């Protein structure tokens, strides 16, 4: 036991957790914490908006596979974090958010900048808590990190009343904490694994769908080994992109609303469908009744609440993805020889993989075609480069046409679809991986929501590249209005967009506008070597659509390939 202030206990607790970066903004009730952080052995990165701070912490967590940390003051500071916390949580990203709070005596009195952030964040966190004594701070911090980073990862929020941080008490630092009722299950039941392996061994048309759980588990090697053994073509969800190498012969690419023809046609044809680490949202399945109508579905997931939630399974395997896949491969290898799949199925897989995804929009003078830009970006970047995306058409073009070869090289806001996520997340990624090129694939609408993070990028020396697919539109909403609302545009034309080049230069970044694929690739190669962030403005046709697209209520096979 050591007598110290809550502020010192907070900083020391973070240091004991190995924290190297904290993203946030100061404010009235967290001034004592910020003062003590000056003595801490970690870097405080000043965001320009609390939502951006949460997204930076989220990007940091995804890039490292560890925990991202953000800090905000009470009231509006705390509520501004909520969107970023919710984004991280639904995408199973380990983020711990610390919020300041008014003093304990004034809680409930509508004090200045008082908000019930525990109530606000309850539905969008894995766990939240308010610390009531300075001596409880070390346990609260350790608990938050343990819950956020174990089992199915997620966001945890810790609320710190001001007087709790300034009180001086006898404080100890526990090496471990035991949490009643919290016991993540990693080891799958051998009986479940054996039954699932029996189904896979008998399959003539096996297909695998891999989600973000494969990446969080570090299970890519096990996934590839099982897919190769079964000769099972493998699709990914949006969050699973990078879990299976895009250049592997068995890769089908993205499955879902904007999935590839190969994935969306072969998943419904499976006789046994193995789902690994995916929650099977509506954006992945389309109409559930036609998702895999004739398949025996096996779902392997660490979160048992996700199994049978949206799609009915034949058997469940609850546990860590890597452990489950190893068990499946071991048991399948005892039941059948490698590659003993139906020859007709193998032929069908090859036929679908040879099909090129449609891109019916013709080239218009003065614009570049978005899929061509994405492919050109991939060829200009080294294999290890990391890409984040904004949300909207830019996100779906990236998901379809940017090949991710390794896990943790492609990040996006999946479940919440948070516009403005990609740029601050890219800054967080750069803080985690300073030696790797980091690129945000953006649309002008989404980039405009958090472009003030450029100040953080410049001031904190965290250079990233922003590729703005600029159509002066809220592109995805406009596409839906074209396809499903008879071209009736409502509140989607962004006539007041700033000049992206001048905007970048105003922050002290570099800006460039390109008009050919060659000049675009040259700009990318210069940008990834620059010491400051670069915004590359790419003009695209406001009428260009993302294809394929599965209409609302339709099945995967009913994707529109053109208007």
Question: What would you note in describing this structure?
Answer:
By secondary structure, this protein is an alpha/beta fold. The protein folds into three domains: 2-171, Rossmann fold, CATH 3.40.50; 190-354, TPP-binding domain (Rossmann fold); 370-546, Rossmann fold, CATH 3.40.50. Helix content is 37%, strand content 17%. The strands form four sheets. The protein has a six-stranded parallel beta sheet, with helices on both faces. Helix 4 (76-90) links the parallel strand 4 (68-72) and strand 5 (95-101). Helix 1 runs parallel beside helix 6 (137-149), helix 15 (370-380) crosses helix 16 (393-401) and helix 15 (370-380) packs across helix 22. It is globular, with a radius of gyration of 24 Å. The model has no long low-confidence stretch (mean pLDDT 96).
SSE topology sketch:
Elements: E1 2-5, H1 6-16, E2 21-24, H2 31-37, E3 43-46, H3 50-64, E4 68-72, H4 76-90, E5 95-101, H5 117-121, E6 127-130, H6 137-149, E7 155-161, H7 162-166, E8 168-171, H8 190-202, E9 206-210, H9 212-217, H10 220-230, E10 234-236, E11 251-254, H11 261-266, E12 272-276, H12 282-285, E13 296-301, E14 315-318, H13 321-335, H14 343-354, H15 370-380, E15 386-389, H16 393-401, E16 410-411, H17 422-432, E17 438-443, H18 444-450, H19 453-459, E18 465-470, H20 475-484, H21 500-506, E19 510-513, H22 517-527, E20 534-539
Parallel strand pairs: 2-3, 2-4, 4-5, 5-7, 6-7, 9-10, 9-12, 10-11, 12-13, 13-14, 15-16, 15-17, 17-18, 18-20, 19-20
Antiparallel strand pairs: 1-8
